[in-house]
Amino acid sequence: MKKILVSACLAGYKCRYDGKAQPVSRIECWLKEGIAVPVCPEEMGGLPTPRIPSEIQTCSDGTRKVVNKAGNDVTKEFEKGAQLALETAQKHKITQAVLKAKSPSCGCGKVYDGSFQGSLTNGNGITADLLLENGIEVFTESNFPEGL
Question: pTM, whole model, 2 decimals?
Fold first, then answer.
């Protein structure tokens, strides 16, 4: 049976930074059918739920880091969670993922710009980037195809 990696919050798990879920009915059905493999890279990386909101900031040298609203660098936790999410996908031979839009972990195409002002910029979250680099097709809850 084909498996799809999904952001756990989209499958109904209360793991978002604010301690809430953001369930998508189709993804919840996949979970019940055994198709969805839920991951929360931020929790997997060791961050608590709820947690201080984080955004990706681009440094002057072009590198990126993840900083929470309190000013703490949480890049290592995000990178660890991304690696564990990738390992989960590889273990299940997953080639596609549906991840939470705009998230500093899971966003694909657009993420918050690091200013904590609600502004978006082009780019991907840490986990989405790692999955894409390893040949896994990434969608968000707002653009995954009907036939997926």
Answer: 0.96
* Residue that has been written with the tokens 């966003």 in this structure: 107
Tokens 């997926």, residue located: 148
Q: Establish whether the linkage from the previous residue to 104 is cis, with ω within 30° of 0.
A: no
Query: How far, in Å, CA of 47 to CA of 26, rounded?
Result: 27
* Cα 32 to Cα 144: distance, rounded to the nearest angstrom: 19
Residue 16 falls in which region: left (phi positive, over 0), alpha (psi -120 to 50) or beta: beta
For the chain, what is the radius of gyration of the CA atoms? 14
At 56-92, the pLDDT tens digits run 999 999 899 999 999 999 999 999 999 999 999 999 9
Q: Where are the beta strands (DSSP E) in the chain?
A: 4-7, 36-39, 54-58, 64-68, 96-99, 110-112, 120-122, 137-140
